[in-house]
Amino acid sequence: MAGTSSGIVAGLTAAALGAVGFLAYRAQATVPAGLAGRPGASASAASPAAKAPRDRRNPTALPSASGKGERVVYSVDDDRVWLVEEHEHVARTFRVRPGSMDPAVGTYWVSSRSNAATGTDGTPVEHIVRFSSVDGVAIGFSAAVGDGAQTAVDPSVKTGGIREDRADGNAMWNFATIGVKVVVIR
């Protein structure tokens, strides 16, 4: 009897691990259609203000109206990002260089990631974290590969890359996995 029950337990354990593995794979591979790249907060979440209040004495301080919980906060007016852990702890904040197209103010979720690619401006980039699109152009964070030199953004070319330094790009890559919230504020 003991051999039978341990075999049943082992079988159930294997089935449970298989189910958990499948669900983890699905969570990494897709974001629910209702969440991917769509602005708008849920009714229970605080929506970002058109212009979130800032502490002018400390311009790197997390804006008060930037949501709650684990998230990436991106200010299109200040060209700044905050990586916010649970309990409102700012793990890192840094300046970015936006492309020619800005996402609308709202709440998004990381919908795809790529280790390396070529940006719409022809620059080789790494650690691409996408969360939206505007007029068919993907919007996401990335770091230029190479010497880090940033050419001026050509406003006539639609670019959605929000460029980070390589160290900041590594931090973003480690923090912003599929499904992590991205809050865009003014």
From TrEMBL:
Biased composition (Low complexity): 36-51
Superkingdom: Bacteria
Region (Disordered): 36-69
Protein's name in the database: Secreted protein
